[in-house]
Amino acid sequence: MSNSSYHHGDLKNALIEAGIEMVNEGGTENFLPFEYFKQLVIRYNKENGKTLSIEEQEIQIIKMWAIVHGISSIATMKNVSWNKKWEEQLHLLLY
User: Fold this and answer.
1) Residues near 68 by beta carbon (within 8 Å), at least 6 away in sequence
2) Where are the domains of the chain?
3) Cβ–Cβ under 8 Å, residues 61 and 34
4) Beta-carbon contacts of residue 64 (< 8 Å; ≥ 6 apart)
């Protein structure tokens, strides 16, 4: 975290409010991608017969967000090149 030049984009996220908690007790509208991940985690666990604690489900959401955010950051960096098409490789990167 000490490399401030890497985290320069964090300022644009300053207005995002995201509650990672599985239960939104604040009553405020949550950041849509987090809500999507929450619903995905709930559905995935239900369909696969997993009974995870709320804390374990929250960890799943954080992991998913970190993977997507990391891939997005790398794919959109100006000086990063790859001889593959990101769209064709996403399924490999996400699993």
Assistant:
1) 33, 94
2) 8-94
3) yes
4) 37, 40, 41
Give residues with Cβ within 8 angstroms of 7, minimum separation 6: 1
Q: Provide the whole-model pTM.
A: 0.64
**Angstrom distance (rounded) from CA 77 to CA 83:** 15
Find all residues with CB under 8 Å of 49, minimum gap 6, and list them. none
Buried b (16+ CB within 10 A) or exposed e, 42-77: eeeeeeeeeeeeeeebbebbeebbeeeeeeeeeeee
pLDDT in tens, 11-46: 455 556 666 666 666 555 667 777 887 888 889 889
